[in-house]
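Hi there,

I know you've been waiting on this one. I reran it after we fixed the sequence typo, so this is the corrected version. Both the input and the resulting structure follow.
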Amino acid sequence: MGGKRMVGVACRLVAAAAALSLALTGSALAATPTAGRDGDRSTGVAEVERNGGHRGTVEALRTLVRQGVPGATAEVREGRRVRTVTVGVGNLRTAEPRSTRDRYRVGSITKTFVATVLSQLEAEGRLSLDDTVDRWLPGVVQGNGHDGSGITVRALLDHTSGVYDYTSDEEFARAHLLEDGFLRHRYDTLPPERLVAVAMGHEPLFAPGTSWGYSNTNYILAGMVIEEVTGASYADEIRRRVIDPLDLEATSVPGTRVTMPRPSGRAYSKLDPTGTGRTHDVTRLNPSIAGAAGEMISSSADLNRFYSALLGGRILPAEQLARMKSVIEARDGLGYGLGLTRTELSCGVVVWGHGGGVHGSVSQAVTTEDGKHSLAYNLNSDWVGDGQGVVEAEFCRG
């Protein structure tokens, strides 16, 4: 995608459609950033000045804090070299700075893990991505023009199915995304069948295969397909096939667990699409609201290890990796494959990865074609901050 800027696109994708992310706006947090350990008192930069060569990346993160993001944490890997950055605070009440070891909700980055498992199952001959959804989930995708007999598993993974996005349902948004509803229902368990039923109450976005439209329902269904094929939950398959082999110690699929594992900071949201009003601590929530579309927890180190291994050919056979990287020109210059995005930055560098947003948490993980240069970061707010400059600064420096 010639000359396209990945992170601005990815953050807009997160804001518009990724799992349960509220709209990101330009409103600034009315709080003064606090110094991190050994850091700049104006932005809380910790342990960065000794890591020369990444000053542009550090400054891009500082800019996000100046714009109102409470705090950010990031890791860069280049071969065997690892550099970490923290900016701002992880807790507005105590002014505790963010940690380079923070675990955080990664939202739609979950989709890459789900697509990886399905690609492995295809490589093992246990299903074909050209199977219809009805082959594995008979009668589940039906109603108001939806028809699972005409939708393939591949179309779920690359968002060409046309299946309606349950997070776009107005009643669902009022009950689970916006202030009053979220505060009442933040601990509710929402089974995947219920989320699919919300989507089936609407007409499809388009006929299967005729267009592209980001839909979280696609990945709720993909998780259900994994369970039908394997007899195990999609969470168990991710643990067995990806988390354990790569030793991703900070990565988990929490299911209905509402708390965050330590170490972790707090997550903050306005719970308002305008990005104004009261700032809420939204750290505790039942992640079944996102399920296979966005429930996972990870860290910057683990995300870099995962995407480096994936793009480096250490998780999938070459044929499946090539199919995963076969992208569709989606929108705003975003190339979307099977749970994997591709963009060519302003300097010509191509990066692969995914963005993710959930209440109070926006994340991005990208790596180069060979998997040797990776960046992952997290912002602990969902109403302000465009991370485009962070990736551009890191991969286009010099």
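Quick highlight: The radius of gyration is 20 Å.

Best,
R. S.
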